[in-house]
Design a protein that fits this description.
This protein has 6 helices and 9 strands; from the N terminus they run ααβαβαββαβββαββ. By secondary structure, it is an alpha/beta fold. The chain is globular, with a radius of gyration of 16 Å. It starts with a helix and ends with a strand.
């Protein structure tokens, strides 16, 4: 593992450990927007149609989306870099399993997954490490299996460093990208683009939300 990768994983882990309880209280349920939930439901239908292998929810946080997929009858487990987040998810959602891990190096055999969800989790991955992440997606997905990546977007890319959240001192980088900044390394990793959806900000949201659906050939 390179020093830069180790650094961003450590700062992301420690930052989410610090804010885990407040984050879970602020975002107690699954995606509130109806379109977001419909896209997740469509993703699960593609998973089911392709085969019985489980879904990995990467960057599962407090586990609400993992629980939603589980309630839809799809085998799923959550992976998060933050042990505090994993502990909260296990407590709140006893159905699916959760464990600590990183999307940069998944402890899984090849072609083991029926689908991957990466909902607002690649936003903390520096550009230089996106190819590694998407290569892991390709390696672990079964043929035909879908992946859904969601992120804050906009007409121009942006990088934001946050040193405080919920009253806690943190060290967290956010990368707001255009859809093309995700689809380019995703397809370069060997995944096929299925659809790109961008919806405008709703309520307190400051930026558009982008959804990239791809599949392993």
């Amino acid at each position: 593992m390179s020093d830069s990768m180790a650094d961003f994983l450590q700062t992301t882990r420690s930052s989410y450990d610090a804010i885990a309880k407040d984050y879970a209280s602020r975002f107690p349920g699954g995606p509130p927007h109806p379109l977001d939930r419909r896209l997740i439901t469509a993703f699960t239908e593609l998973v089911t149609a392709n085969g019985p292998a489980p879904v990995a929810d990467l960057g599962s946080g407090p586990g609400s989306v993992t629980a939603l997929v589980h309630d839809l009858g799809v085998p799923v487990f959550g992976v998060d870099v933050s042990p505090a987040m994993v502990a909260l998810a296990r407590e709140a959602h006893p159905g699916p399993r959760f464990h600590v891990g990183s999307m940069t190096s998944l402890d899984l055999p090849g072609a083991a997954l029926g689908g991957i969800l990466a909902l607002y989790s690649t936003i903390h991955v520096p550009d230089a490490h996106l190819p590694t992440v998407f290569a892991e997606f390709h390696r672990t997905l079964a043929p035909g299996a879908p992946v859904l990546v969601t992120f804050q977007s906009g007409p121009e890319p942006d990088h934001l460093h946050v040193a405080e959240r919920f009253g806690h001192e943190i060290d967290l980088d956010y990368y707001m990208r255009t859809p093309e900044q995700i689809t380019t390394p995703l397809t370069a990793a060997g995944l096929e683009l299925v659809a790109t959806v961008v919806r405008e900000p709703d309520g307190e949201e400051a930026r558009p939300r982008a959804f990239v659906l791809a599949r392993r050939p």
